């Protein structure tokens, strides 16, 4: 009986994943919204006395979310058509360098003031909720690599909004890590004078540099191998081997972690570097499709479990103050910080800046960081933190799921009307 119910729920989730993208195309409802609601309904019928909420199953949650984010980062990196250049990626740097620190500070201040969190817990809340999500934001990101011989989409290729949101999500999932460690050091290591320079040198700078170098080197080496190797047996691009993407996810992430770098950053940089090795080759499309299928299954699993957890005590510690923090993040803090960061950028028009600022979707990355931090340290405010983060994710999925399709469609229609006939 128990096994049957579990398989039934899993089967329904996979069926939704197969049918929903087509059914909901051009509609103001996203697939994550529907799957999350199905998970909430399924939570009432799942048997067993063991609660499945992430707040109670932190180790499992951490590793499942970790794999999901890693696979998504590889897919996002392969999907970006634009060559890496400082000026061409200028909106991305503004979002990372201005919007993200401002968001962390604003959420931390609100958590300390409204939720009465300790300074360490408040910074953790800000760090966990700061990164935008590469997993749940498919409606506002680039669809996939444009390759020779495939269907190219000039609209998406030139869409600064989609590019900015995609590249931001690919990078800030790694760049939130230094601030998670800052919260952990504050909670466990005593006065900042004893560890401040170590945090700056290693967590803020060193691990970022190591992760970027590992990713860059790995992408360059494997790009040379699969596209230009002298031996036919090594040129996997010639036969279209789709498993390379997943193999690189594990290899690059593991290497970066062994070398004490940020593995999330390494995986994304590796994908971008691999794409640059032979930008127009159709093999990128094969890799991206394989990654996308795995990502879809993992995302469905996490959304179903997250939805089911809402009826298993995940929100039991949610207060009106926590709801206020979540609402402020989604409706005020991210839009305002995102807009401020983009002021003066020439690549984006006024409406595009607003849309880019608003659509900072929160999701699986926040689940991972919360599970990681609570596995490292037992926080007195742990239940409150989990409830607030979960509420913010659910709110983001719902609000952005409703707004994404009409907002992006309006921008595309406006762009089309402005182009000369």
Automatic annotation (TrEMBL):
Offer one Pfam family short name for this entry.
Na_H_Exchanger
The residues covered by the Cation/H+ exchanger transmembrane domain are 15-409
Which cellular compartments is it found in? Cell membrane
User: What keywords are annotated for this sequence in UniProt?
Assistant: Antiport, Cell membrane, Ion transport, Membrane, Transmembrane, Transmembrane helix, Transport
Bilayer topology reads: Multi-pass membrane protein
Q: Which GO terms describe its biological process?
A: proton transmembrane transport
**Molecular functions (GO terms):** antiporter activity
Q: Which InterPro entries match?
A: Cation/H_exchanger_TM (IPR006153), Na+/solute_symporter_sf (IPR038770)
What Gene Ontology cellular component terms go with this record? plasma membrane
| Residue ranges of the TM segments | 6-24, 31-47, 59-80, 92-115, 175-197, 204-223, 243-276, 297-317, 323-342, 354-372, 384-405
Q: Does the keyword Transmembrane apply?
A: yes
- The principal localisation class reads membrane
**Record-given protein name:** Sodium:proton antiporter
**The species this protein was found in:** Arsenicicoccus cauae
